[in-house]
Design a protein that fits this description.
This protein is 32% helix and 24% strand. By secondary structure, it is of the alpha+beta class. It folds into three domains: 277 residues, 2-Layer Sandwich (BirA Bifunctional Protein, domain 2); 59 residues, 2-Layer Sandwich (Herpes Virus-1), CATH 3.30.40; 106 residues, 3-Layer(aba) Sandwich (Rossmann fold). The strands form six sheets. The protein has a nine-stranded mixed sheet, sandwiched between helices. Strands 21-20-22-23-24 form a five-stranded mixed sheet, sandwiched between helices. Strands 4-9-8 form a three-stranded antiparallel sheet. The longest helix has 17 residues. The structure holds glycyl-adenosine-5'-phosphate (GAP). Glycyl-adenosine-5'-phosphate binds next to strand 11, strand 16, strand 17 and helix 12. The site of glycyl-adenosine-5'-phosphate has 18 residues, from strand 11, strand 16, strand 17 and helix 12.
């Protein structure tokens, strides 16, 4: 029997959610295209991030270049430290990540450990390659894709390994253009690139992927978050270092117990909790893991990772890092530019501190597919997706019973009316109505609208609800409002 992730990925490719990139040339490992069904879902996830993270006053969005000059990534520490431990099998010459081989053998994570430590442990656990071959020495393999800008062979730039650096490079100008005050939050949604040693697990470890990041710049002497008192009693699930299970903790207790650095970090974590719930990931399927000090990225003073529980095992969905003044300080030094700021409340200029939530879009997209996937049942003899309306590829499918006698024309007019009323819909006139309903379920469309002979006279249609297959008649004039109203409540069943 296929594992859940194999089945879900298989369906995702069959039904147009994902496409293997450059397939006619044999595809590229670690790179996927989003197909006509997947692309709108991805866009909706990204827009929910924008709605939750970027619409508050003082929160701004930018779109910086994906090519970054080499000096900037030397300054940020990526050129020296952004590497994975590469080890080669002496027999097959195949390459592996040493920390992954250790994880497979010991069942615990070795991510972020030094090359020396990993080398020692490989020996201690007598680990060979998966083909049984002896392993060579571990080398630190830099994950960035180098680029040559202009008519030169010199690698003088890199494809960005995170969207964050563009925000740091643009910070000073945006600060000056926006009232020269803190806090200031700058977000970005876009592609990042990492030359992963062994891309695997579909969307989990890719070489080109999308991130949703926010850099929250603040005066370190003022780390309160406006409005925190309204959410301080809210609870999130937290996993402490060394523990297996997560516990529920209120945001205020998480700060008191030093799990979260301050109110800003707690709020940004709570927003991720909300985003995941709105995308449709059940609360028990994710939690926030507090990283031990020896597992922190090179730029971070404290880190909390969102972990998702999937059929692959536990996967990191996001990281929230207290980056302090690390990036601005280093860019100031290497570029010889003053990136300190003058604040009305301070006598001296300061370098702002930063807390950054960094969320992977593709991993969240995968987690949604897995959470929403439904097997065949006596009620539905096909596999389908229970997407919340907020992230479904379309809200509705519009189907004339017959493609003649004016039913097709009326259906076309209804498509137009629905689109004008804000309902994203698609039109289909081929196959039996039953087949069209099944196809809509298969891509997770919440509502189906059928136009029949009565519709011409009575000016009404049948609306079918995806989850329980319930149907009712509804007037064409109230259709768009009804769907929008229903979708806002997350309703896709007559019964709920
Ligand atoms: N700016 C900080 C940063 O980039 P990260 O933990 O390296 O931090 C953030 O990445 C998120 O980006 C991860 O939690 C994950 O969801 C996503 N991500 C990172 N590498 C990825 C890859 N190779 N494939 C897919 N998603 C990835």
């Amino acid at each position: 029997m296929a594992k859940l992730y194999e089945r879900v990925l298989d369906i995702a490719v069959q039904r147009g959610f994902l496409l293997p990139s450059a397939e006619i040339y044999g595809s590229m490992a670690g790179i996927y295209d989003y197909g006509p069904i997947g692309a709108p879902i991805k866009r909706k996830i990204q827009n929910l991030f924008r709605e939750i993270f970027i619409t508050c006053p003082g929160f701004l969005e930018i779109e910086s270049s994906t090519i970054v000059p080499k000096e900037a990534l030397v300054a940020s520490g990526h050129a020296a430290s952004f590497s994975d431990p590469l080890v080669e099998c002496k027999k097959t010459k195949k390459q592996y990540r040493a920390d992954h081989l250790l994880q497979e053998a010991t069942g615990k994570s070795w991510e972020g450990k030094s090359v020396e430590e990993l080398q020692k442990r490989l020996k201690e656990h007598k680990i060979t390659s998966p083909d049984g071959g002896e392993l060579g020495e571990i080398k630190a393999f830099n994950l960035m894709f180098g680029a040559s800008m202009g008519a030169t062979n010199e690698k003088n730039a890199y494809l960005r390994p995170e969207t964050a650096q563009g925000i740091f490079l643009d910070f000073k100008r945006i600060f000056l253009q926006n009232g020269s005050k803190l806090p200031l939050a700058i977000g970005q949604v876009g592609r990042s690139y990492r030359n992963e040693i062994s891309p695997r697990q579909g969307l989990v470890r890719m070489r080109e992927f999308s991130q949703m990041e926010l850099e929250y710049f603040f005066n370190p002497k003022k780390d309160e978050m406006p409005g925190f008192e309204k959410i301080q009693k809210k609870e999130v699930r937290v996993r402490l270092p060394g523990e297996k299970n997560a516990i529920e903790v209120s945001l205020e207790d998480a700060i008191k117990n030093k799990y979260f650095a301050n109110q800003i970090m707690a709020t940004l974590i709570y927003w991720q909790h909300q985003l995941y719930l709105r995308v449709g990931i059940p609360a028990k399927k994710f939690h926030f893991a507090i990283l031990p000090k020896d597992g922190l990225p090179h730029y971070s003073q404290a880190n909390v990772d969102l972990e998702m529980i999937t059929s692959y095992g536990v996967i990191e969905g996001s990281g929230t890092a207290y980056r302090t003044d690390f990036d601005l300080k280093n860019h100031a030094k290497h570029s010889n530019t003053d990136l300190s700021v003058k604040l009305p409340e301070e006598e001296e200029k300061i370098i702002p501190h930063v807390i950054e939530p960094s969320l992977g879009v593709d991993r969240l997209f995968y987690c949604l597919l897995e959470s929403a996937y439904k097997e065949k049942s006596p009620e539905k003899e096909w596999e389908w997706f229970d997407f919340p309306p907020a992230v479904a590829p379309y809200l509705a499918g519009v189907f004339p019973l017959m493609k003649k006698d004016g039913l097709d024309k009326l259906a076309g007019e209804i498509v137009q009316t629905l689109r004008e009323g804000g309902v994203e819909c698609y039109y289909s006139q081929s196959g039996s109505i039953g087949k069209r309903y099944a196809r809509a379920d298969e891509i997770g469309v919440p509502y189906c609208i059928t136009i029949d002979y009565d519709s011409k006279e009575k000016k009404d249609v049948t609306i079918r609800y995806r989850n329980d297959g319930g149907q009712e008649r509804i007037s064409i004039s109230s259709l768009a409002d009804k769907i929008i109203e229903d979708a806002k409540k997350g309703k896709v069943s007559l019964k709920c």
